[in-house]
Write a structure and sequence with these properties.
The complex is a heterotrimer of chains A (166), B (614) and C (580). Chain A has 166 residues and is α+β, with helices and mostly antiparallel strands. Helix content of chain A is 46%, strand content 11%. Chain A is elongated and about 55 Å long. The chains are: A alpha+beta (166), B alpha/beta (614), C alpha/beta (580).
């Protein structure tokens, strides 16, 4: 339920223009809020407080209303996904094989919490339930790629590999 | 576009144009076939036709769903109607050369059931198709959903023209009433009555809404209609607008259906260009326009009042009824809301007459119903059958039975709101009343088949988990009660159940049913109640014997190595993530149950079938 | 409207068509318990406590939203209904912090009462996972403890529909639904105005004011402190409710008596501060009117309104009167004039305001509110807190003799008294301004057009040949409407009175909590206001400038209204705040 994103907001002028255009387009329609929020999610990839404030101001609705909606619908996200989304399995099999330690190591190396994203937008980190690869435990995935039979030392190597990839 | 005559002209031109090709090829572009690669088939087909120099002789139509998703990607070659299935791009070169240039269909790529001793039979004679009757799906898999002309060629918008030219709103309603059409979204409310209420409601402004927020796990009937035949829904909404006195409409569709959204967007644009949406439609003085609104991932928005709140740009929380949407709906105005499949039937009813529709089905359930067949069944896919077809016909014939020789255990209809039908009731007729009588419901059309490997307690738990994730949280019984139901089921499946829990389950389930605010809460306990009704012994086995008869509930399982079969290859010991297996090489191994986490890795790995779970 | 024939528990009645079952029940003396229902603002059918049987309906229906119709047979007292309500209560309790004995609402909690009525004997019946929430104590005036929240959403309705403030709402969904601010920020960091309307509608102890009684007890017991209490005009009209007097009973004499017995050194009347406010505000208005100042001028007595203006209409800050509120004026006068006259060092004076208001707890910490160099007021008690102090001290309120305020700051005019009701400030100001403008004694003191509990009232008065357009509004949602109309140019006013709470201070966020069963069917605002208007009628002095103590304050100390000394002591400034 972590709602806070530790990634500094890095919206561009161009993104703001696009959002303003979307607000302009829907402003006079009834029920404008949802389509505008969907547009904002498309433009920014997530709906941080800065974006929600722009929406609330633009449509003249309370910020809490925007936030209440953004947490009601599963489609809206409050934190960005990194270019490389890392998921660590904390299911039973992986956990007993030490995935908890791997998760902790990732938090330290990346400097973010569960559900967070690094300030450069490169890595996001989340825990997940069993992905059915118990035989490879402990397991993590980076986007679609699966890494199994991990040790804490492997974590740094994996991160280095993706850092080098740009 | 001014009148029916212009529609007929377009129809004739389109048909003439299609006849001018040597071959018309229909390739399924529905979500199922697309994800199995049908776009690559089309690309390859175009390339190969170009190479063979016959591109201009062949018309490729990317259609909506054919229904037999299990065999995708699918391609049918007309005029003969040869049915290619499970195509790979590598097959195309051969098909172009042999069939389209050489005139000889490539038997090995045809759907095996249409080929007997080298003879090709019509695909419509296969068991999957021959019991079906396509009304709502009439154009799915037939026309290109991106072409309004092809829709018009199938008499599209003729029902609208007929209504505007010849029928009063009351005549439309009495036609619907005679047809016996009932809402296909799950509730089964008589469609004509909804229309009358909205028509009679006082209001300077009225709306028509199409509920395309199909959310039951495993259901994709509406998606298929929208992907394959979007104009049928638009046409029906126009008819509805004329009948109830509305000039504006919304289609609320899941954002998770990108192809449906794309096709609807195109269709709305085309209809506007043809003057079929907008002002003074077909010179009748009737104005109507509509817009899309996308869902954002909330199952509860399939509930009609929640859907309207969502269109209004609010949290999708249902509001109490009455007042019903027909009196006070979207933006507080009288609103007619029907589901996709209901709408898709309407142009046909207008054109073919109420009697045609009422001739299908049973006493209280007329016409046909579309089902999405899923789960442990051979022909997963989309079917449309006359009401009154038995479950046995659907599962054993159309569905092709249960895979791997397993036994049919139960079917689940109505998704998280529905119930299960045990094997003993497989001869139940599919109609509203029969299904309700046995504690299930018609639902929107998801039909999940379960075999002997399915644990019914686990199944109930699965649906409750879905419900608690999707409960809006507004009313007490649904917000807290469903969570508590889930927790009791969790307790039972983890081996901590007590026999009194069954009474608590029943008591709480009926409490939630009785006083929840909306349909989601009122039906959420159904999966629990119906499994308790038909599979109480399974619940008791979990509680009294701490045993899961289907071998699903992990906490109640134990893995054992048969010393007779074990060759001591050590593979299982190496596979085990927690080091619970030990033994010497070439001697039978054993599992330390205190360490075992029941992940099953050992059993999957064993080459000698020596490991079993109990 | 036509009537329909219905039956309640088998007995036939005729009731107006179109009303809900619960309204019909009220007419035929059947009580139906509710938790979420608040008439007109929260008719959402969410808690499901008010369910009843309607013959022919498969499920129970929520009586708060279900309309009656001809021939309807309603059953409210069946075993089925009782069991349903009981189970529902048990479900609520399974997520509720049940440590009732340590709860501020113990004994007054609506949930507690209904549990007792329905014989809830097993609070653990549906125990399971619960969500734990941190208590939000970030705001100056209140706590929010979501562990006691039952998600009835009354607070949300009050904040959004009544006040147009909309800083709280439902976040997330399903079992994780909780009431909070955007991004679950603490209340102290958002545009909450502190009005406390959420507190008075909460059926449990999930929302309550910050307790100032501890610091007041401590000051009273401290021999070095000269502890002075002042009571707002509206307290005398409502304190009686804490001791089971009928709503609208004026208990001024017993209140003063009780305060004296609590050990306060002096008991002054904020009505005096109100009279001072009128002196300054009328003067400021005339100045603006005659010298081309910013108009319309808007009153600034209501700290909830002031904060609302700062957050939402910062461009209208120049329109706000620069006058402090009556409480702050009196506090400032106590720590300057009174201190000088009595030779007391202001640092040793502890001023307590008894207020109908929670925003006052915020107001005392505002900048530019320390005329003596020390805060004008040191602690603010709500009517409720005072009631609790009286009970704790073992004072038998009902049998107390009637006593008078101390002088000189206990003397007041009827104009000061009516400050407690919407329209009162305007009327009081007009009584004084009319005479100042015309220079003549006015015979008419009643300005009936600005009285009454409607949310927005307008009037035009011809005073000394000048047409004055005035507007009075209460409830911040109404203030929004008025301000938007002023901004768009649709309305042209000279003078606007805004009270944050609907009906004014008599219905403030610090007033006794009346359960929904009363709140929904009794016009609290009129009954309480009546007590103030009758006192105004009884008084011989009904104009602020005729209050002899006020006259003395100006002749001996301040000079004239608007003097630089008056400005230094009685006026303040405002700050722009963020919209969200």
């Amino acid at each position: 339920m972590s709602n806070c994103s530790c990634v500094p907001f890095k919206g561009t002028k161009e993104q703001q223009k696009k959002l303003e255009a979307a607000i302009e387009k829907y402003k006079d329609q009834s029920g404008a809020l949802m389509p505008v929020m969907q547009a904002a999610q498309d433009i920014y990839g997530y709906l941080p407080i800065e974006v929600q404030k722009m929406i609330a101001s633009g449509l003249n609705v309370p910020l809490e209303q925007v936030y209440g909606i953004s947490t009601f619908y599963a489609q809206f996200s409050l934190s960005p996904k990194g270019k490389y989304a890392i998921s660590v399995c904390l299911g039973t099999a992986c956990y007993v094989k030490g995935s908890g330690k791997i998760f902790e190591r990732l938090k330290t190396v990346l400097g973010i919490d569960d559900g967070g994203c690094t300030p450069d937008g490169k890595f996001s980190l989340e825990s997940c339930r069993c992905i059915g690869a118990c035989g490879l435990a402990p397991v993590l995935t980076v986007n679609e790629e699966v890494y199994g039979r991990l040790t804490v030392d492997d974590v740094d190597k994996i991160i280095e590999k993706y850092k080098a990839l740009d | 576009m001014k009148n029916a005559a212009e529609l007929i002209k377009i129809k004739e031109e389109t048909l003439k144009n299609m006849k001018s090709y040597k071959y018309n090829i229909r390739v399924c572009g529905g979500t199922g076939c697309t994800s199995s690669g049908s776009m690559k088939i089309i690309d390859e087909l175009e390339a190969q036709l170009e190479k063979a120099g016959i591109r201009d002789d062949v018309n490729i139509v990317q259609t909506g769903c054919f229904g037999l998703c299990a065999l995708g990607p699918i391609m049918i070659v007309y005029p003969d109607g040869y049915f290619y299935s499970r195509l790979e791009p590598e097959h195309i070169k051969e098909i172009v050369k042999e069939h389209l240039v050489g005139g000889k269909p490539v038997l090995k790529y045809l759907y095996s059931e249409t080929v007997n001793d080298g003879e090709i039979s019509a695909y419509t004679d296969t068991v999957f198709y021959r019991h079906q009757h396509r009304s709502a799906l009439r154009n799915c898999g037939v026309i290109s959903p991106a072409s309004i002309e092809q829709y018009i060629a199938m008499d599209g918008y003729m029902a609208l023209a007929k209504v505007l030219d010849e029928m009063t709103p009351n005549e439309v309603i009495s036609t619907l009433e005679k047809s016996g059409l009932r809402g296909r979204g799950g509730g089964g409310f008589p469609t004509a009555r909804k229309w009358v209420f909205t028509k009679n409601a006082k209001g300077d402004k009225k709306y028509v809404c199409c509920n395309a927020d199909e959310g039951d796990p495993g259901a994709f009937m509406d998606r298929s209609v929208l992907e394959g035949d979007p104009h049928s829904v638009i046409e029906a909404m126009l008819i509805a607008g004329y009948t109830v006195g509305a000039d504006e409409g919304y289609i609320y569709v899941r954002a998770e259906y990108p192809i449906a959204v794309e096709h609807l967007t195109t269709a709305i644009k085309q209809a506007r260009e043809y003057g079929l949406l907008g002002k003074n439609i077909l010179n009748s003085g009737f104005d109507f326009d509509l817009d899309l609104r996308l869902g954002a991932g909330a199952f509860v928005c399939g509930e009609e009042t929640a859907l309207m709140r969502s269109i209004e740009g609010k949290r999708g929380e249902p509001i109490p009824r009455p007042p019903f949407p027909a009196i006070k709906g979207l933006m507080g105005k009288p609103t007619l809301e029907n589901n996709v499949e209901t709408f898709a039937n309407i142009p046909q009813i207008i054109l073919n007459g109420a009697d045609w529709f009422a001739s299908m089905g049973t006493e209280d359930s007329k016409g046909t119903k579309v089902f999405a067949l899923g789960g442990k069944i051979n022909h997963t896919g989309l079917i449309e059958v006359p009401m009154g077809t038995t479950l046995r016909q659907v599962i054993e014939e159309i569905g092709g039975g249960i895979p791997n020789g397993k036994k049919f255990k139960a079917a689940q209809t109505g998704g998280p709101s529905g119930g299960c039908i045990p094997a003993s009731l497989i001869d139940t007729k599919i109609d509203y009343k029969s299904l309700t009588d046995i504690g299930s419901m018609m639902g929107s059309g998801g039909l999940i088949v379960m075999d002997e490997d399915t644990c019914m307690v686990d199944m109930a738990k699965f649906f409750l988990e879905f419900t608690i994730a999707e409960s809006c949280g507004k009313c007490t019984p649904c917000r807290i009660g469903t969570k508590r139901l889930y927790e009791i089921l969790e307790k039972i499946t983890s081996g901590r159940g007590e026999i009194e829990d069954l009474d608590r389950l029943e008591e709480l389930a009926s409490h939630i049913k009785e006083i929840s605010l909306c349909g989601l809460g009122q039906t959420a306990p159904n999966p629990v109640l119906s499994t308790l009704r038909y599979f109480r012994d399974e619940y008791e086995a979990h509680i009294l014997e701490k045993r899961c008869p289907a071998g699903v509930c992990k906490a109640l399982l134990s893995y054992e190595i048969d010393p007779e079969k074990c060759r001591g290859c050590t593979l299982c010991a190496r596979k085990c993530p927690v080091g619970a297996i030990s033994g010497e090489v070439k001697k039978p191994h054993t599992i330390d149950k205190s360490k075992c986490i029941k992940c099953g890795a050992c059993m999957e790995g064993c080459k000698f079938g020596a490991i079993s779970k109990k | 409207m036509a009537n329909v024939n219905i039956k309640f528990n088998g007995i036939p009645y005729s009731v107006p068509e179109g009303i809900t079952i619960i309204e019909a029940a009220r007419l035929v003396d059947v009580n139906i318990p509710t938790l979420c229902y608040l008439k007109d603002i929260n008719e959402i059918g969410a808690c499901r406590i008010c369910v009843v049987e309607v013959v022919g309906q498969r499920n129970l229906v929520a009586s708060c939203v279900y309309p009656v119709s001809e021939g309807m047979e309603i059953i409210t007292n069946s075993e089925r209904v009782f069991n349903s309500r009981k189970h529902n209560l048990q479900l609520i309790l399974s997520t509720h912090d049940n440590r009732c004995l340590a709860c501020v609402q113990n004994g007054h909690c609506e949930l507690q009462k209904i549990c007792r009525d329905f014989g809830v004997d097993d609070v653990n019946m549906f125990d399971g996972e619960i969500n734990h929430y941190e208590i939000d104590d970030s705001a100056e005036h209140m706590y929010r403890d979501n562990n006691k929240c039952i998600l009835c959403r009354r607070c949300v309705a009050a904040c959004e529909k009544v006040q147009g403030v909309s800083v709280i709402g439902p976040n997330e969904r399903g079992f994780n639904t909780h009431i909070g601010c955007a991004f679950d920020q603490p209340l102290g960091d958002v545009a909450c105005v502190g009005c406390g309307q959420c507190i008075v509608v909460c059926p449990t102890g999930a929302i309550s004011e910050k307790d100032h009684t501890k610091s007041v007890w401590k000051a009273i017991q401290d021999p070095t402190k000269h502890v002075i209490v002042q009571t707002a005009p509206a307290i005398r009209a409502t304190l009686g409710e804490m001791f089971d007097y009928p709503i609208g009973t004026n208990v001024e004499g017993k209140m003063v008596s009780a305060l004296r017995r609590l050990g306060f050194d002096k008991i002054f009347d904020t009505n005096f501060g109100a009279d001072a406010t009128i002196m300054e505000e009328a003067n400021e208005f005339i100045e603006r009117l005659q010298n081309g100042g910013t108009l319309p001028m808007i009153t600034s007595c209501s700290p909830g309104w002031v904060k609302f203006c700062e957050h939402n209409y910062p461009e209208m800050i120049p329109n706000l009167s620069s006058c402090k509120s009556p409480m702050q004026m009196l506090g400032a006068i106590i720590k300057t004039w009174y201190a000088e006259q009595n030779n007391i060092d202001p640092k040793d004076i502890f001023v307590v305001g008894v207020m109908p208001c929670t925003a006052k707890k915020f107001e005392i910490g505002r900048p530019d509110q320390s005329a003596s160099g020390y805060p004008d007021v040191d602690a603010v008690l709500t009517t409720r807190e005072l009631g609790h102090m009286i009970s704790r001290a073992g004072i038998d309120f009902k049998n107390l003799p009637d006593e008078d305020f101390d002088n000189p700051l206990g003397e007041s005019s009827g104009a000061g008294t009516i400050f407690g009701a919407t329209g009162g400030v305007m009327e009081a100001a007009l009584r004084t301004a009319a005479e100042k403008i015309t220079g003549k004694q006015a015979s008419e003191v009643d300005f009936m057009e600005v009285r009454g509990t409607e949310g927005i009232k307008e009037a035009t008065y011809n005073i000394g040949g000048v047409e004055l357009n005035v507007c009075v509004c209460s409830g911040l949602a109404n203030a929004r409407k008025v301000l938007d109309a002023v901004k768009s140019g649709e309305k042209k006013y000279h003078f606007i009175e805004v009270m944050a709470c609907p009906g004014g201070c008599i219905n403030g966020g610090g007033q006794p909590v009346q359960p929904s069963a009363v709140r929904n069917f009794v016009d609290l605002k009129s009954l309480r206001a009546m007590a103030l208007y009758s006192e105004d009628m009884r008084k011989t002095i009904r104009k602020s400038h005729e209050n002899p103590a006020i006259q003395k304050l100006y002749t001996t100390y301040l000079g004239s209204p608007g003097s630089s000394k008056a400005h230094r002591i009685l006026h303040t400034s405002y700050v722009e705040r963020d919209k969200f």
